[in-house]
Design a protein that fits this description.
16% strand, 2 domains, 14 helices, 437 residues, alpha/beta, 7-stranded mixed sheet
Length: 437
């Protein structure tokens, strides 16, 4: 039995990426991964956006090695350490607006899902309300509270899954407007609907503890909310005194062309959920929240591995490099190049129904032929065929969205223009092969 078959025989059926890319990856540098046979791949997945600087960035690796060779605490619960102090100072210095001076930090368990749980618990404790509002297409994690706020019905469709206490709102998905329009009025209709739900005394929905939203839906299909929609949502939540939680687990730290995706809209949420890139490739999650919400008493959200010390060291170095090398601007530049190239391909391959995203968070929705100039139904089978053909050609990307029909690109922020060109070339070769059948 080979190594891949052995792992398949002992691992859970819940495996995802391993089932799509059945090789043993032995090493990686930058945006390149090498398998056991020595074959090279361009990595446009970057550990679901976690590896902001790619694999084994030399400065991050050196910072970690120096830390490991010291006598500093390798695990510390939530005790004060030099690693924590350096991380906190770096993070607070990078937060937008006055958030660095008006916020408190909650270090959570290693995953973004736990940070979402913390943010939801905090809002419920602060308001006394047991319910929240989330959005169609949302993804906030796989633990009980975050799973309840997920749009995808698959993981929570079995009896016994707790989905109570969450009311779902229409996200501004203009390509497939939830109100049945051509998309030109989707933002307005969505905001008007939310306004009515919050203000109508007979809406049937009690005032929630919080509204939680991703500024760009990730697993939901890389769907950006417009800056105007986010500003109007913030205004509504302020007017109705409902805390707004922004989930930047995937969008944070230069991914979208600004350090934080909320900067595109210039809004200040009550709570900001961070994970993935914040740990520099190591498990880490944090909730940044306004001081007015800090009503917890000791132990109300705890965990043995809150504040991973190695993640603090790697995260601080990663944040420093992102800032020093102006990688937000670089992500905006290379993202524009990639999106432009993909839109050119969409003109030649009509089954590419829409190219969307910001910075280096890009989605391409694959569709069946439409009629009367309309975009056709989502085509998950073709999207998967394109993904697997890309893999054969040494390009790793992933699918998401409704019916798995959105091809997603999350390359490391250090991707060069030459590598972006190679990504487009390999992607086009896969399109051509799949189109020919």
């Amino acid at each position: 039995m080979d190594q891949v078959s052995y792992l398949q025989s002992v691992e859970s059926n819940a495996r995802t990426y391993a089932g799509n890319f059945p090789v043993v990856f032995t090493r990686g540098t930058g945006m390149r991964m090498i398998d056991a046979d020595g074959r090279e791949y361009l990595d446009c997945l970057a550990n679901a956006g976690t590896l902001a600087l790619g694999h084994n960035h030399p400065e991050v690796k050196e910072a970690v090695l120096q830390f490991l060779s010291s006598d500093q605490l390798q695990q510390a619960l939530d005790l004060a350490t030099p690693a924590k102090l350096g991380f906190v100072e770096q993070l607070l210095s990078m937060l937008p607006g006055d958030m660095g001076t008006t916020s408190k930090l909650q270090f959570c368990g290693p995953t973004g899902s736990d940070a979402v749980e913390a943010a939801l618990k905090l809002a419920k404790h602060y308001t006394g309300s047991p319910s929240i509002m989330a959005f169609h297409g949302a993804y906030h994690g796989m633990t009980a509270g975050s799973l309840a706020a997920m749009g995808n019905l698959g993981p929570k469709s079995r009896p016994g899954m707790n989905t109570q206490g969450v009311h779902f709102l229409p996200f501004p998905y203009t390509l497939r407007c939830p109100f049945g329009t051509d998309g030109s009025q989707t933002d307005r209709l969505s905001i008007d609907y939310i306004r009515n739900v919050l203000s109508d005394p007979e809406s049937g929905i009690a005032k929630p503890a919080a509204v939680i939203v991703e500024p760009i839906q990730g697993e939901g299909g890389c769907i950006p909310a417009s800056a105007q929609w986010l500003r109007e949502l913030r205004a509504l939540t302020l007017a109705h005194e409902v805390p707004l939680i922004i989930d930047e687990v995937q969008t944070g730290f230069a991914r979208t062309g600004t350090l934080f995706a909320i900067e595109h809209a210039g809004i200040k949420p009550d709570a900001l959920v961070l994970s993935k890139a914040i740990g520099g490739g190591y498990p880490m999650s944090v909730v940044v929240y306004g001081k007015h919400l800090d009503t917890w008493t000791p132990g109300m959200h705890a965990g043995t591995f809150r504040g991973n010390q190695i993640g603090m060291v790697a995260g601080r170095e990663t944040m420093r490099i992102i800032q020093r090398d102006q990688l937000a601007a670089h992500a905006a530049k290379i993202g524009e190049l990639l999106i432009g190239g993909l839109k050119s391909l969409a003109q030649r391959y009509p089954f590419l129904g829409e190219v969307r995203g910001r910075g280096l968070m890009i989605g391409v929705e694959v569709v069946r032929p439409g009629s009367d100039g309309r975009v056709g139904a989502a085509d998950g089978a073709r999207a998967r065929a394109i993904k697997m053909d890309c893999f054969k050609r040494g390009l790793i990307l992933e699918t998401g969205g409704r019916h798995g029909a959105v091809l997603r690109m999350l390359p490391p922020l250090i991707i060069s223009e030459a590598d972006a060109g190679a990504v487009l070339d390999r992607f086009e070769q896969a399109l051509r092969a799949v189109d020919r059948g």
